[in-house]
């Protein structure tokens, strides 16, 4: 049901006294609005659906300190907003609650709110200048060698735990792989270690040591900027430094920070979510092992069902307007919300239906700010999950599914841990393509990248001159799906 057009600052309920105890509205904030924080917001997914029921595709709600904000719940409304740059901006400096002092400097969401000199907050010519440098630097990334690096890092991470037969795929895999790959892409592979992963995790969680951890990461990025300014190389940072847009050292550092944190957090979430789905959802597992679904398709389904960023903070109205039947005033703030937007019943009347082949989810945003790193995020997830499942084909969840825990914030929802078990496996050379780790015969391997129904013959002739010798697997080999050889070769070539 869509409510009558109303303004975000309208107050239907006495903001001071509020509803009496026992009233169903008890627990609501000023204006009878729902809070996106605190005890009433423990399950934001449920809360978004209540808001959709009550208000339709755009709902008024309250952030911490009861600061008003629209939540955009509809798929079409989210797309319309991010594409309408003449009406909405990402520059928070026009946000009314910030201008009138309702949002205090110590507001818990300030790191998301405060304007910074980065492309995410810029618009118009300035956005184009900064974004052009970022996308040009990304365009220089050689995707074949990047995929090879992803495969190698996956191999070495799996080597760390494969002999134990047990692992936590969040802290030992999903949180490491994106950091290792991003340090390589940025041009500081030597900075990737447990300390860097821990610092990034800590900085994003906002613990007492968050500032220290943030400083640790920023110091590494500053050293890198200085080194590449003095002597450019052929990496992302060097191309950012030398781009004709003429970024200052501060701008380079801030964009390295943006890219590193965005990539780390979002891709770690995507990996963990996709692995969780593969391990716990019987339909998923059956489709993967039955060959009706490939790993990239599983990743895409995960981007629909659990987008790594549930919401993106924020968009601000540059003029009075209307969205989803609501009256939006100049200076109002709106949450771009991929999580509820992807579940909009108008585009997904049946949530259990597969979205295979449909990439119109909101996980990477849209419009001028659409994520420029999505191919990198997808590659890390595709190659990482594929290679991990090749190494551990018998991997299973090591706890009841109900024991899995999430940590939620407005911006994202992280799986805390994903404990798994498998038959212990020997280490493998990180420089060769992953191969099945000799599971018991009845637990045949996952046809991870190729559909089992592919008419590809099992035994393919070797190419005349293979780029590198691909070692034959140690005996005995588990049963493999057709096309594995071709897939190994493709993987090795970084395709
Ligand atoms: C699964 C992985 C990822 C997801 C889900 C994701 C999602 C997003 C989203 C939702 C936005 C905001 C769009 C908007 O404001 O409308 C964004 C922006 C951005 N992302 Fe990603 N991202 C991912 C990976 C990456 C990677 C790997 C990189 C860099 C290598 C990256 C770099 C950026 C940058 C620079 C922006 C700001 C663009 C702008 O404002 O013009 N992201 N991303």
UniProtKB/TrEMBL annotation:
Biased composition (Polar residues): 1-10
Biased composition (Pro residues): 458-476
Region (Disordered): 1-31, 428-481
InterPro entries: Cyt_P450_B, Cyt_P450_CS, Cyt_P450_sf
PROSITE patterns: CYTOCHROME_P450
Gene3D superfamilies in the record: Cytochrome P450
Record family assignment: Belongs to the cytochrome P450 family.
Protein name as catalogued: Cytochrome P450
Species name: Streptomyces camelliae
């Amino acid at each position: 049901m869509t409510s009558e057009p109303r303004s975000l600052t309208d107050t239907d309920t006495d903001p001071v006294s509020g509803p009496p105890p026992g009233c169903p509205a008890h627990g609501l904030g000023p204006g009878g609005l729902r809070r996106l924080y605190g005890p009433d917001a423990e399950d934001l997914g449920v809360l978004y659906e209540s808001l959709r029921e009550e208000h339709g595709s755009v709902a008024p709600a309250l952030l911490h300190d009861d600061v008003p904000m629209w939540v955009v719940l509809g798929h079409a409304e989210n797309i319309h907003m991010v594409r309408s740059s003449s009406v909405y901006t990402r520059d928070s400096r026009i946000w009314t609650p910030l201008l009138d002092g309702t949002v205090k400097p110590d507001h818990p969401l300030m790191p998301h709110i405060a304007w910074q000199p980065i492309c995410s907050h810029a618009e118009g010519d300035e956005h184009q200048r900064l974004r052009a440098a970022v996308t040009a630097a990304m365009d220089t990334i050689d995707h074949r060698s990047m995929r090879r690096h992803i495969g190698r890092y996956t191999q070495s991470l799996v080597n760390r735990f494969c002999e134990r037969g047990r692992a936590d795929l969040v802290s030992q895999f999903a949180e490491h792989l994106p950091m290792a790959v991003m340090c390589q892409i940025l041009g500081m592979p030597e900075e990737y270690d447990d300390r860097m992963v821990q610092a990034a995790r800590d900085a994003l969680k906002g613990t007492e040591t968050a500032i220290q951890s943030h400083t640790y990461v920023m110091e590494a990025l500053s050293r890198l900027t200085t080194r590449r300014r003095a002597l450019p190389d052929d990496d992302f940072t060097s191309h950012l430094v030398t781009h004709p847009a003429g970024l200052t050292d501060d701008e380079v550092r801030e964009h390295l920070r943006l890219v590193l944190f965005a990539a780390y957090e979002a891709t770690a979430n995507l990996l963990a979510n996709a692995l969780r789905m593969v391990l716990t959802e019987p339909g998923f597992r059956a489709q993967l092992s039955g060959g009706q679904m490939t790993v990239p398709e599983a990743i895409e389904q995960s981007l629909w069902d659990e987008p790594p960023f549930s919401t993106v903070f924020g968009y601000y109205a540059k003029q009075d307007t209307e969205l989803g039947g609501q009256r939006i005033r100049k200076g109002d703030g709106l949450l771009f919300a991929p999580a509820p937007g992807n579940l909009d019943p108008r585009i997904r009347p049946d949530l259990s239906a597969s979205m295979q082949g449909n990439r119109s989810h909101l996980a990477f945003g849209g419009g001028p700010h659409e994520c420029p790193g999505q191919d990198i995020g997808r590659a890390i997830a595709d190659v990482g999950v594929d290679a991990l499942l090749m190494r551990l084909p018998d991997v299973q969840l090591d706890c009841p599914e109900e024991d899995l825990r999430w940590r939620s914030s407005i911006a994202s929802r992280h799986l805390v841990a994903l404990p798994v078990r498998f038959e212990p496996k020997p280490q493998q050379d990180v420089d060769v393509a992953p191969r099945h780790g000799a599971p018991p015969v009845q637990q045949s391997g996952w046809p991870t990248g190729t559909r089992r129904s592919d008419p590809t013959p099992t035994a393919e002739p070797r190419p005349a001159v293979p780029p590198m010798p691909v070692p034959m697997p140690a005996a005995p080999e588990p049963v493999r799906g057709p096309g594995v050889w071709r897939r190994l070769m493709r993987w090795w070539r970084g395709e």
